[in-house]
Design brief:
Chain lengths: 157, 157, 157, 157
């Protein structure tokens, strides 16, 4: 998860690397599916590494979908799809912050999903830790994020 | 699409055969994802034939999901997921009839999706034809259903 | 419930009369809230008779809302709002038929709501009776529709 | 908006006072509609002051609805209803914080709604200001919150 139009280059780079690593671990990538920002970068990374990508789109058709999405889920329910996005994930990586991304992190914590914040600002990390410290994780880089994810998935088995 | 708990054996047999044929054509199967009736049978058919299966679940967790679903989309929005189900399909096969199935066919026609009714009762076919005759198709068996689908997909390309 | 853009004059007349009678009985009117067809006519009738009107809109803002809606519910979830529409009603009146209206009737029956079809064509009535004969009711005119509704609500108390 | 089960007494007291003031201004109160915490308190306040109350429920029936809700909207879409909740409001008051409440504030800012945080902790205010400083407002008490709301509504006219 991460910003669309307003994503900064560092967030997209992290998302691309996470996409590659998710595919490398034979995990399935789930994103909001649009052709901008963190979503597009993560899908591109996973596609290039031979992974399977699912995009949960807000729109009622394929316009605006990332060309790197293999399985587009066309919801037609706008931003309400953020809820489906997080429920369909076993855990969430967050690269960067926007109102939309923050809503997904909150919905994820509410639904008892673990969230791994990648290179967050300290005050961002503290905010989500204040909502649910047990399920908010902080990673200094994408390598650490993948390591935390692998450990969490092992426990969920 | 088709009934869950109330499915009759003939509908499940058709769904199983369609699942196999969908996989055989390298198409992706999308269903409501539950472990009963037409949904479960179609997923079993597709899985056995080596296909990829997506299940758009009404529930907020994996309880009740078909074990033959590869990609569970956990919506948590109950029967409102019928809308997502049909929007995410390029075309719809309907095996059997129930209130839920009929709602999906109606939403599909409303969203301008083609619907192929497999072995429908004549009055059922007439009803949906009265809503949208151009997008309602009738197949005498699963073989004809797949043939109609292939022709429709060719035109959509 | 009833068609929007494609509504015929007779359906709108019935909807207007039902709106007036719903308000006259001090019931609350719930519709899809748009400014066309059966929705707009029902809201106009209820407003003129001093009733309270709720409109469950598909859009993410007030554009296209009927000016006779007192309480607009802005869902932003498109046609998936049909589900909310029927769940929020104690019973449903249907004036006319379209794919969207038929989806609402089906979702209503699936959710165990009673549906009163006002002046339906015989084959339409038979179709919905085949889905759930116990909850499908046929009214020859709006007067009979209101009478059936009053009896059903009495039993629900 | 505010916490349900985990609400603290101060948040409920603020919500009750806001409910009274909302009714006193002849505004319509919209909440998540459940019979706990901030939702229940706000509805009780508005009801006691003779106001009209709308509750956008997550459930598919009326179980768990506040008895102070006049117009229950039964969505059946779980936490995805948070989106409908904020879209249906002209502006949002937030009393207290939880993951669910934070998701609503984020969705509100994303949908360009103004949010008035009532007696927030400084770091909470700073977090939402970092997402959208122009639409995040801080009120020291309920009186100031109502004053800010009145000014914002005047500008929206």
């Amino acid at each position: 998860m991460g910003p669309g139009e307003g994503a900064i280059p560092g967030d997209c780079r992290n998302a691309y690397e996470l996409g590659r690593a998710i595919a490398g671990n034979a995990w399935v990538l789930v994103t909001g599916g649009r052709d901008v920002g963190v979503m597009d970068a993560a899908n591109r990374g996973a596609r290039e590494a031979g992974g399977l990508t699912v995009g949960v789109l807000p729109s009622s058709d394929l316009a605006g979908a990332s060309s790197f999405v293999d399985i587009p889920i066309v919801t037609g329910i706008g931003e309400a799809r953020n809820y489906i996005n997080v429920l369909s994930c076993q855990l969430i990586f967050a690269c960067g912050l926007s109102a939309g991304t923050a809503s997904e992190i909150c919905l994820a914590l509410k639904a008892h999903r673990h969230v791994i914040l990648v290179e967050p600002r300290p005050e961002t990390a503290r905010f989500f830790e204040s909502l649910d410290s047990a399920r908010t994780h902080v990673a200094a880089d994408t390598g650490q994020a993948i390591q935390i994810a692998a450990e969490l998935l092992k426990k969920q088995e």
